[in-house]
Amino acid sequence: MRRRLGARQPAQIALFMPVAILACIGVLGLVLDIGLFRVLDSDFENAADAAALAAAWYQPVCPVGDPRCKTGSDATTVATSFLSRNLGPASNLCSAYPSITVRSNQIHNPSAPAVSVIVQCNAPYLAGGVLGLNGGSQITRWATAAIGNEQPNGSLGDYALTGDPLIAALVSL
Question: Which of 17, 70, 110, 124 is a Cys-bridge partner for 136, taking CB atoms 3.0 to 4.6 Å apart?
Answer without folding.
Answer: 124
